[in-house]
Structures are given as structure tokens and as C-alpha cells.
Amino acid sequence: MPGRGRGRRSPGGGGRAGEEPPGLGSPRGTGGATEGMEKGGESGVQPPVPIALLRSWRGTRAARRDEKDLSWSHSSRMPEESSPKRSPQNIPYKDLPHIINADGQHLFCRYWKPATAARALVFIAHGAGEHCGRYDDLAQRLTELNLFVFAHDHVGHGQSEGDRMVVSDFHVFIRDSLQHIDLMKKDHPGLPVFILGHSMGGAISILTASERLGDFSGMVLISPLVVASPEVATPIKMESYTSDPLVYHGGMKVSFVIQLMNAIARIERALPKLTLPVLVLHGSSDKLCDIRGSYLLMDTVQSQDKTLKVYEEAYHALHKELPEVTTSVFTEILTWVGQKVSAAGETSHT
């Protein structure tokens, strides 16, 4: 992949689950701030001077010229180091865990590492207008099963680069997801991979899985975007959402809605290809992503192992619902994923 450091990630190593370790943001292989810098040498014609002063004069002039050339090299040849990329919250990306996508955009990442050896990888795709930090509670619970959970803020969301709620093509979300997944698979070869998506993240998960048939051991969808809904552009109004500074609180942009419609058209073609195990969770009173989409998904996917759990009178964000609903949702997900991880482990040992 062209470009300095692109396609590399900086998870930040250890630390508590979900932390963004400071000072570890430079993608691996990019080196330090002075790597690749060439100190300027002497050039031009020296004016005639007395022999006795020549050595002293040359040393002083060379030192000054070297200092000047070093400064020029730092500011002109490596502007990304003198003016490091910063997040929309004005934090240098070198201080944040991130990957750099194919367009050279920095995507903020989170990693929840289990206390012992990981049994599987779980990638979380968040919904429109929000960010991956809103899945911390669920991710923490998944680590209790010794699962390594990871996620990033999509382009134009949260702490990632890009104009807010703008994407040139919906496929950028799928491309970036696959890049991140591939990096984690490379670091943790042989582990089964699961994908979990909410709302728009459900659409991303479906299309990501359809591009890599056979790569995923299971998919969990929470209130997925599958069919068009007249309320799709309506912002969510709940206290934990509206008070979150990393959430986009503006109106849905027309260009973004067009990309969502394009995604829905692609999903219609992708669903019949899917054969992986699927768990779908949806609230009957969801006004943002029509539950008819989940019924359509169940009727269309070719999976032999597929489950739909409907929560009566529950709304869109089931993982942020009333305590009794959220507790049931977490239990359902943990039980289902735990069973699939065990089954995948048994298969790998036969």
C-alpha cells in the first residue's frame, strides 16, 4: 500500500482494556522523528581567507550551516513531524492508538485485551454518528470470555479524521474494516474471527462478511440497517447519546443518506451469499432501523445456524437500553459467541 506508514497500526500494547495508551501512536515501521533525515553538507565556493584562520572559520561556518540545514530538513522534508496530524479533538495521533487507511486518513482505535491468552478476535463496527467507545461495556464483558476485542472510529466519526458524517463511498467503511481485521489476524494467526455491528455497523458487518466468505466464524447484529426506513435520518435522542461530546449531533447530511441507500442496495445482493452463523437482536419499537430488515435477513441468508431475538417494546440501541433489556442482550451475545468460539476451537483441533 503506497505511502509512509499506511496500512500499519499502533494498538499501544498492554494497559487496561479499552485504554488509549499515550505515546504509542506512530504506526509500526515509521521510525522516530529524525529517521531518514539527511544533514545538509557544505556547498558552494569558499571565499579566500588567511591560512591561519581557515580551520577555525571552516569549523564555525560548517556548524552554523549544519544547524541551518538540519532545521530546513526537519520543516521541509518531514512536515508531518513538525506539524503532526491531530484528531478532531486536537490530540496528536502519535499519542493515540490508530491505523492509517488507504487514503492516508488516521483512524482512532480501541483494543480490549483479555487477561489470558485470546481464544478469538471480535471486531466491533459502530453505528452512524457515534464512536467505538460506546461499546466499552460490551467489549469488557467479551474479554471475560478471553476474547480480544478491537474497533475503530469510522472515517468522519469520533476521533478519526475526515469531515463529520461524510464518506466518498460506503465501501470505504468496509475496506477500512477489512484492513484492521487483516492486521489483527496477522498478529494473532489461527484465531477464529467474529464481527459485531450495530445499526449502520450492522450494514458494514454484512458487507464485510460478504466480501470474505468463509473468513468469519460468526456475526452478531444489533438492530442492523438492512432496509430503508423513513426515520433513518432521525438523530437518536437519549441522555447518554446527546451528552457524549464524541457523538455527531448535527442533522444527517444528504450525501451520507445517499451512501446509506447505496449500502442497502448492496446488502440486498449480499444476503443470499452468507452462510456463516448469525445472531440478530432487534427491538420491536425500533424507529430508526426497521425490524422488517431483520426478518428479511433471516429469510434470505443461507446460514443453517441463524437466530433472531426480538425484544418487545425495546428501541434501537439495545446495548444502551433499560438495565433489564441490556442485561438480557449482553447475556444473549456472550452465550452465543461463547458457544461458537468453543465449536471453532474443537473444529481446529480435529
TrEMBL record:
Pfam families: Hydrolase_4 (PF12146). InterPro entries: AB_hydrolase_fold (IPR029058), Hydrolase_4 (IPR022742), MAG_DAG_Lipase (IPR051044). SUPFAM superfamilies: alpha/beta-Hydrolases. Residues 1-94 are annotated as: Disordered. Residues 117-236, 237-322 form the Serine aminopeptidase S33 domain. It comes from the Eukaryota. Residues 63-84 have a biased composition (Basic and acidic residues). This is Monoglyceride lipase.
